[in-house]
Amino acid sequence: MKIAVLALQGDFREHIQTLESIGVEGVPVRLPADLDGVSGLILPGGESTTMRQLIQRWGLVDPIRGLAATGAPLFGTCAGMIVLSKQIVGGDPPVLPLLDVSVERNAFGRQLDSFEADLTVPVLGDTPVHAVFIRAPVIEAVGPDVDVLARLDDGRIVAVRERNVLATSFHPELAGETRFHRLVATMAAAHDDPGEGAGRRPHPTRRARNAS
Ligand code: GLN
Description:
The protein has a single domain, classed as Class I glutamine amidotransferase (GATase) domain (Rossmann fold, 3-Layer(aba) Sandwich). The chain is globular. It contains six helices and twelve strands. It is an alpha/beta fold. The strands form three sheets. The protein has a seven-stranded mixed β-sheet. A three-stranded mixed β-sheet has the order 5-6-9. It is 27% helix and 28% strand. The two termini are 29 Å apart. Glutamine binds next to helix 4.
């Protein structure tokens, strides 16, 4: 299985390394053709204004929307989350409005430019996620189909999922945290082979024939 990583700008190398550490091939994406044959896409951290401009300039808007429409998983971290949001506080126009949230950029201000926190993320199990926040956004409102996966102690939302689109304000790829990437790989495998894990079995006669 191949998972694409948008490689226009930002910390795409760390995402590719994290995928490789769990045995998944990470494919850097710069042009639409790089998306051929991939089972999912990660949008890294970086600078969302630059990333939004480059996505448009390189003709990636429609191909990425097309991939999302197939149900393949998309995962945005930090700037990647901003790029996927339907609404950006302050009026920056959305470029890939695939996640029904309103996001505030640089939500922690200058005083708390970067920090780390241990978060409870129930979908990933009992062990807390060590989260690295760097000039991070927060989600200030979510639509009805969005699941909140994690909050800070003060209640602010920092990880969400809406069907096949996942996003975090923080950087699991900078903290040796692999569980989000494993979740993306699991979602991608289910997308590639919807019968797997859903209890579907080959037709009995076909199974008998295959066995001989
Ligand atoms: N502050 C950046 C932005 O608004 C995001 C920072 C990051 O991705 N670490 O684009």
